[in-house]
Amino acid sequence: MTTSEKYVTAAYLVFLGIVLVYVVIYSTKIARLERELAELGKAEGSPEHE
Amino acid sequence: MDDISQALPLVTRQRHRLDARRLRIAAAPLVAACSCATLLVAAALALLWVPSDADQGFSQRIFYLHVPIALTSYACFGAAAWKAFRLLATGDERRDLESYTAVHIGVIFGLLTLVTGSIWARISWGIWWSWSEDQLVLFLVIFLFYCAYFMLRFAVEPGTRRSRLSAVYALFGAVLVPVSFLAIRLAPRYIHPVVFTMSGPQMARSMLLVFCLSLAGLLGLAGSLYRTELGGRRIDRRLRELRSGS
Q1: Which residues of chain B neighbour A17 with C-beta distances below 8 Å?
Q2: Which listed site, B11, B25, B221, B230, has its alpha carbon 20 to 30 Å from B200?
Q3: Domain ranges, residue B177
């Protein structure tokens, strides 16, 4: 593998890496939102709120 | 009777909007999957099929990633400015979150532009960065300008004032995009290559095809990320409102 090929591959991998990091961060956030929504749903259904 | 006849077009318009929204929600996973597939095909073609550039050789293949990423970030900043303009024109507060999300996606693509550009500069020029290049410095200025958008946004209490200030800032930022485009073309000397000139794209058809595929894939990816992030932010805001109300 030449130096050029190494750098080009690195550029494509960096792109993939940054997009993956974004997706992982956002998946974590969506999971947190889902958890909070479920908690809110439970709280709404609890006897205290009736 | 008059009231009913006046209300009917409004109801029809609302129904059309709702249908369009449902269609967008249903099509979102398909758009995301198509974008990823297009990007994979574009990357494979860029690395294996397209002929090497006569001047730069194999390293020119970063072009199919770097330039579409930069154009996508410009498109995001343009979209943010458009949403900001609509907020200022109509007072519709929903546009604030849309403009903010578009800026966020634009900044991520801006970071990717800087990183892939630096890698390309290292291969072609032997340096990671050149302060004497107008195109590079102007892109960095745009990137830092939009990074400062977040500082402004989080320095002001949530509410109408914050959304108005953010909208004006996002509108100002859009002015920098054509300046960045023009600067390289007006600059007297440069080493940064210019492929799209007044006489059209200076590349072979196969190269243009891969470039367009890559651009389409990246725009689709940015659109999908925007939709997902916006949906999450809306739920987050609604949750906060529900919590503060209870």
Answers
A1: none
A2: B221
A3: 24-245
